[in-house]
Design a protein that fits this description.
Shape of chain A: globular
Number of helices of chain A: 1
Distance between the termini of chain A: 12 Å
Largest interface: A-B, 32 and 32 residues
Largest sheet of chain A: 8 strands, mixed
Oligomer: homodimer
CATH topology of chain A: Jelly Rolls
Number of strands of chain A: 9
InterPro entries (chains A, B): cNMP-bd_dom, Cupin_2, PKS_Associated_Protein, RmlC-like_jellyroll, RmlC_Cupin_sf
Structural class of chain A: mainly beta
Protein name (chains A, B): Cupin domain-containing protein
């Protein structure tokens, strides 16, 4: 593989809530995503959910609190924990890590397609 | 857990080549590290090795080429691949991901201790 420049990858597409896989690590997809507005409440029963904000400010709403991440801040949502990522104050660019094949919505029926770039 | 501000964590210690675990994801340690100069050649027979440069410029020497990473650039060294990280042009700050318990040198006898911050 080659190195991955995250900003270049993020500049290569415009869609929101459509993660792109840029590398793989031990059966996990390393993804970049651009988001704006509200996602929906969901959980991943079998995997933690890794968020690292690269640009913008993201609220990760949990049932009992809100975790707000700016650039260079990360949070891992434990498996089985309901959460809703929300970008209320402009677009947010992030790095995500999930086991390959994990539906981003927690439900294969509604999951975004898997796209590698 | 709380969110993790990577710059704050990196500012909390000064040692080189001494990774600090700042979060966990599915049995993997999410670590920050400050490095300068040469590490040694090694490989991890059972795991890929994830590098994301946050500050500075890192050379990951492979036996057949050199991958140079700047801020916002990542590279995954495939398992079993000999490599040597080198920071020749000043200090480098990085995010690393490895399965918990992985010796950073590839050898438990010479590995850095596991430190959580």
């Amino acid at each position: 593989m080659d190195k991955v420049n995250l900003a270049e990858k993020l500049d290569s597409f415009a869609e929101h809530w459509s993660p792109r896989t840029v590398a793989q690590y031990n059966g996990n997809d390393i993804m970049v995503v651009r988001v704006q507005g509200e996602f929906h409440w969901h959980n991943h029963p079998d995997t933690d959910d890794f968020f690292l904000v690269l640009d913008g400010e993201l609220d990760i709403e949990l049932r009992d609190r809100v975790v707000t991440l700016g650039p260079g801040e990360l949070f891992v949502v434990p498996s089985g924990t309901e959460h809703r990522p929300v970008a209320r104050r402009g677009e947010v660019k992030m790095l995500l890590i999930e086991p390959s094949g994990t539906p981003n919505t927690g439900d294969p029926a509604t999951a975004a397609p898997h796209i590698c770039i």
